[in-house]
UniProtKB/TrEMBL annotation:
Organism superkingdom: Bacteria
ChsH2 C-terminal OB-fold domain ranges (all copies): 60-106
Cross-referenced PANTHER family: BLR3430 PROTEIN
Residue ranges occupied by any ChsH2 rubredoxin-like zinc ribbon domain in the UniProt entry: 23-58
Alphabetical list of Pfam families matching this protein: OB_ChsH2_C, zf-ChsH2
Protein's name according to its UniProt entry: Uncharacterized protein
Length: 146
């Protein structure tokens, strides 16, 4: 991927009062997700009510930034033309260490992505804003030149 992701003309996220804390954290290169004060479970995407116990006592907490690739797609034909300069690129379902799954841009690693890959949060400037992308955790054996 030789194109600077920050130069892409991609659509901006739709920010609501509910999702504002997520996007504010993202802009600072951080990942915040909701946690339920009643059942203790982590919640993502942002909601007004816990999907596990229906409590409305949700608070925002910093996520570890660790996750695992649950599934992914190599996108050749983006849903928006703004992404065309970087196609093909990888979009994946990241199972966060806290439990919830989030859809995210997966930065290229040393090898092709695979289900089960360990991932780390990699805040990335895309289309003029910092978004919570993820990158593969490279193991020592994979870092050797081939
Ligand atoms: Zn709950």
């Amino acid at each position: 991927m030789s194109v600077d992701l920050n130069t892409l003309k991609t659509p901006a996220p739709t920010i609501t009062a509910l999702t504002q804390p997520f996007w504010d954290a993202a802009a600072q290169g951080r990942l915040k997700i909701q946690h339920c004060e009643d059942c203790g479970k982590a919640v993502f995407y942002p909601r007004p009510m816990c999907p596990h116990c229906w409590s409305k006592r949700l608070v925002w907490k910093e996520a570890s930034g660790r996750g695992q690739l649950k599934s992914f797609s190599l996108v050749h034909k983006p849903g928006h033309p703004g992404w065309l300069p970087v196609a093909p690129y990888v979009v994946g379902l990241v199972e966060l260490a806290e439990g919830p799954t989030m859809l995210s841009f997966i930065l290229p690693g040393m090898r092709s992505p695979g289900v089960g890959d360990a991932l780390l949060l990699a805040p990335t400037a895309i289309g003029g804003r910092v978004l919570p992308a993820f990158k593969p955790v490279e193991t020592a054996t994979e870092e050797k030149p081939k």
